[in-house]
């Protein structure tokens, strides 16, 4: 029988519902897991601000893994535990291309998203304080950014056609009718960041429960002792993972925790 020592949760499409809220059932299930001494960590493609706020709100103590695994941050001290940026030699021409061609892109640098004025807001959090407008990407410091986000069909098609051969990690995602491509270092993945965090806390992978919904979650879900995919995930993601819980609007995280953590020990390889 396998017991769980650490739970890793994606945010968008997983812990958060379509209104970007944590349901009462999900909150209660996380509180119950914490009461059992189980660690809980948020693993997200977002920047530092949102997962830090949500972690504090839920009473979580572990560092947050954000920016698709490119940045790990201690939410208690503000210390950067891990940072794997996009090399400036690749990021600079990509940003120059986006600006010259009027391609919608956001760059995450020094824990802020920068975009050109008048860019469309696809998600509500794009109006938050960590999002700032800049008249030219050339005005940014010449340092390596944490990651880039190409937003919308036109931008995704452009980056695929122009830069897909670069030695970087291109994470293509679909959110309803909205598509985006997050560009990170090849080494920056949720799986790698979670592996490192678990090593720090001496938690073996067999004792990890990970829950997510998107393509960039799949390696993490398949690495964990128990990987669970949300019912609202794309069909190819569900096929890749196998274990499925309810959707993010139906307390899918709570149902997974109840099944694999809170009620009884679970034989991880028997499902």
Description:
The chain is an alpha/beta fold. The chain has 2 domains: 161 residues, HAD superfamily/HAD-like (Rossmann fold, 3-Layer(aba) Sandwich); 97 residues, Hypothetical Protein, Haloacid Dehalogenase-like Hydrolase, Chain: A, domain 2. 30% of the residues lie in helices and 21% in strands. It is built from 8 helices and 13 strands. The strands form 3 sheets. A 6-stranded mixed β-sheet has the order 8-7-6-9-11-10. Strands 2-1-12-13 form a 4-stranded parallel β-sheet. It has a 3-stranded antiparallel β-sheet with strand order 3-4-5, with helices on both faces. Helix 1 packs parallel to helix 8. It is globular, with a radius of gyration of 18 Å. The two termini are 12 Å apart.
In helices, the fraction of residues equals 25-40%
Strand order across the biggest sheet?
Answer: 8-7-6-9-11-10
Please compute the radius of gyration using only Cα atoms: 18 Å
Going by helix content, strand content and strand pairing, the class is alpha/beta
Q: List SSEs in N-to-C order.
A: EHEHEEEHEEEEHEEHEHEHH
Q: Report the β-strand fraction as a percent range.
A: 15-25%
Figure out the total of helices: 8
CATH topology tier name of the largest domain: Rossmann fold
Name of the CATH architecture of the largest domain: 3-Layer(aba) Sandwich
Arithmetic mean of pLDDT = 92
Largest sheet: 6 strands, mixed
What is the 3D form?
globular
Q: What's the CATH first level of the largest domain?
A: Alpha Beta
Please give the domain count. Answer: 2
CATH homologous superfamily designation of the largest domain: HAD superfamily/HAD-like
Low-confidence stretches: 264-271
């Amino acid at each position: 029988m396998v017991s769980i020592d650490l739970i890793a949760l994606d945010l968008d499409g997983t812990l958060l519902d379509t209104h970007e809220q944590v349901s009462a059932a999900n909150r209660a299930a996380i509180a119950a897991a914490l009461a059992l001494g189980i660690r809980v960590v948020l693993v997200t493609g977002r920047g530092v601000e949102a997962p830090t706020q949500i972690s504090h709100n839920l009473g979580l103590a572990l560092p947050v893994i954000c920016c698709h695994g490119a940045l790990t941050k201690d939410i208690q001290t503000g210390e950067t535990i891990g940072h794997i940026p996009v090399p400036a030699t690749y990021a600079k021409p990509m940003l120059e291309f986006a600006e010259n061609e009027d391609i919608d892109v956001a760059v995450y640098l020094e824990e802020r998203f920068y975009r050109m004025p008048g860019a469309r807001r696809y998600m509500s959090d794009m109006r938050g304080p960590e999002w700032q407008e800049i008249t030219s990407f050339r005005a940014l410091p010449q340092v390596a950014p944490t990651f880039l986000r190409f937003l919308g069909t036109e931008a995704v098609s452009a980056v695929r056609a122009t830069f897909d051969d670069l030695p970087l990690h291109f994470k293509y995602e679909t959110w309803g009718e909205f598509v985006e491509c997050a560009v990170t270092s090849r080494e920056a993945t949720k799986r790698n960041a979670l592996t490192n965090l678990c090593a720090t806390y001496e938690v073996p992978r067999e004792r990890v429960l990970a829950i997510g919904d998107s393509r960039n979650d799949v390696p993490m879900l398949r690495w964990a002792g128990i990987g669970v995919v949300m019912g609202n995930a794309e069909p190819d993601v569900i096929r890749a993972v196998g274990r499925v819980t309810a959707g993010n609007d139906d307390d899918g995280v709570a149902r997974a925790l109840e099944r694999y953590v809170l009620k009884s020990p679970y034989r991880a390889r028997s499902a």
